[in-house]
């Protein structure tokens, strides 16, 4: 793929532009779904292509192709050059200066490709069976899914950058359904890794079943203001929204609640949030971003103080800052945009049981609905549906559903009382490493 990227870049440079870049990607993926011990779905796909960016003066052009022949690469280069005539000039556009050092990361396991498909099917079936056998009230598993992917990313540009890396990832997910007295509740769980042997299948099936069963008999509770404990799944959902507001682009477009707060307290002293593009377990880990800038660990909130924002090359230039290695690119079909890599809320010292023990009367949140549509990232105000359990005398009590938790994200961060030590990697809505959290007080709207 690096050879292809070099050829595409050379073809683009030959059109007479000032700068040229080629981003080449090759991918392979597989997804297996098992239902009632039978394969319901098995999908395998491969793909490859190149995206070409060119710059001349303040003009920018872009095109992509899946035709990797010499003629196909030349056609994409000419198409990218032609688009400069119909795009608005932008003084901040351009390539980053090549770095000299890059992190050495082990992101690929050949075992993923070598493992027979039959073993992967058996794993998904085991996942389902483990959940069904966990409790007699588990009536079915809505989905027992195993998925994997691997790919090669290569970038070559006219400033001398020429590199590629290879990665592999896999995960398993299931949703268990518990039923009792005509009432049904669901519970989810997942596990991630870079090869099948790293996935905790039995534990994942048991956890999904336990979460579903623990919510049987859930009903509305009275409206109250009380301490709230968020489990890692819910914390991850909140951190994902917060992370999106911590980009330079969000601030520049006046879409961030953190605008103007750089260097100021935005959370309680126990809150430490970083963007970690180097963590070996992170699904977004890479030696360089979608522009060839080395990834890094970037402190966003340290001891409650806002340290700064995430930048790609473009948004960084608008602020007179360097890229933080956050030029994200999901495909060769798209141009870079600023986004988090692996968001990590650093763990505290308390276990979830110890956190619950701090609460005399409160609410343990296990799931939220509408987190992305229910949050105003400019003001920080939010209102989302929630499911969980009441807390009474430090112990989990009756299950609760159809309630709403509302407030303001900035005030919520300021009210963090205890950060747990039970961090989990949550792959939904990004790659997020999050623990349980105890919030001093929130409004829970029920009956």
| Global mean pLDDT | 96
Tell me the number of helical segments per DSSP (H or I, 4 or more residues long). Answer: 10
Tell me the span between the first and last alpha carbons. 59 Å
Residue windows where pLDDT falls under 50 for at least 5 positions: none
| Coarse structural class | alpha+beta
Query: How many beta-strand elements?
Result: 20
Strand order, main sheet: write it out.
3-2-1-4-5-6
> What is the count of structural domains?
2
The best one-word shape is globular
- Outline the biggest β-sheet: 6 strands, antiparallel
β-strand amount: 35-45%
Rg (CA only) = 24 Å
The level of helicity is: 10-25%
Order of helices and strands: HEEEHHHEEEHEHHEEEHEEEHEEEHEEEE
Report on this model:
The protein is α+β, with helices and mostly antiparallel strands. The protein folds into two domains: 2-214, PmbA/TldD superfamily (PmbA/TldD fold); 224-445, no CATH class. It contains ten helices and 20 strands. The strands form four sheets. It has a six-stranded antiparallel sheet with strand order 3-2-1-4-5-6. A hairpin with a 2-residue loop joins strand 2 and strand 3 (59-65). Helix 1 crosses helix 2 (70-83). The longest helix has 18 residues, at 117-134. The termini are far apart. The model has no long low-confidence stretch (mean pLDDT 96).
């Amino acid at each position: 793929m690096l050879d292809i990227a070099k050829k595409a870049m050379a073809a683009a440079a030959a059109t007479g532009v000032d700068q040229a870049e080629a981003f080449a990607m090759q991918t392979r993926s597989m997804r297996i779904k098992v239902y009632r011990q039978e394969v319901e779905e098995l999908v395998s796909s491969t793909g490859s292509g190149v995206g070409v960016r060119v710059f001349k003066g303040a003009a920018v052009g872009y095109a992509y192709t899946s035709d990797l022949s010499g003629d196909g690469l030349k056609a994409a280069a000419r198409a990218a050059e032609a688009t400069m005539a119909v795009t608005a000039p932008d003084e901040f556009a351009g390539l980053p200066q090549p770095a000299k050092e890059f992190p050495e990361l082990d992101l690929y396991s050949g075992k993923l490709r070598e493992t027979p498909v039959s073993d992967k099917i058996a794993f998904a079936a085991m996942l389902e069976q483990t959940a069904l056998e966990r409790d007699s009230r588990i009536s079915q598993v809505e989905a027992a899914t195993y998925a994997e992917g691997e790919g090669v990313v290569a970038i070559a540009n006219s400033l001398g950058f020429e590199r590629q890396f290879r990665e592999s990832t896999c995960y398993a997910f299931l949703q268990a359904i518990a039923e009792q007295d005509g009432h049904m509740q669901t519970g989810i769980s997942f596990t991630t890794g870079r090869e099948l042997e790293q996935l905790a299948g039995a534990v994942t099936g048991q956890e999904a079943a336990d979460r579903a069963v623990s919510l049987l008999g859930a009903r509305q509770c009275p409206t109250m203001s009380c301490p709230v404990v968020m489990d890692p799944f819910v914390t991850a959902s909140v951190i994902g929204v917060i992370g999106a507001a911590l980009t330079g682009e969000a601030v520049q477009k006046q879409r961030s609640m953190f605008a103007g707060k750089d260097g100021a307290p935005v959370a309680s002293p126990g809150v430490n949030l970083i963007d970690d593009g180097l963590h070996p377990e992170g699904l977004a880990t890479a030696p360089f971003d979608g522009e060839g800038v080395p990834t890094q660990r970037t402190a966003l909130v340290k001891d409650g103080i806002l340290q700064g924002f995430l930048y790609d090359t473009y948004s960084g230039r608008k602020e007179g800052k360097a890229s933080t290695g956050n030029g994200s690119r999901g495909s060769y079909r798209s141009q870079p945009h600023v986004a988090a890599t692996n968001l990590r809320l650093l763990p505290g010292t308390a276990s979830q049981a110890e956190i619950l023990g701090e609460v005399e009367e409160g609410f343990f949140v296990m799931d939220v609905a509408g987190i992305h549509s229910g949050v105003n990232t400019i003001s920080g105000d939010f209102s989302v549906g929630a499911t969980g359990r009441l807390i009474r005398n430090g112990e989990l009590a009756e299950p609760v559903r159809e309630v709403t938790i509302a407030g303001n994200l900035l005030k919520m961060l300021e009210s963090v009382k205890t950060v747990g030590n039970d961090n989990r990697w949550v792959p939904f809505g990004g790659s997020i490493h999050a623990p349980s959290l105890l919030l001093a007080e929130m409004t829970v709207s029920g009956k």
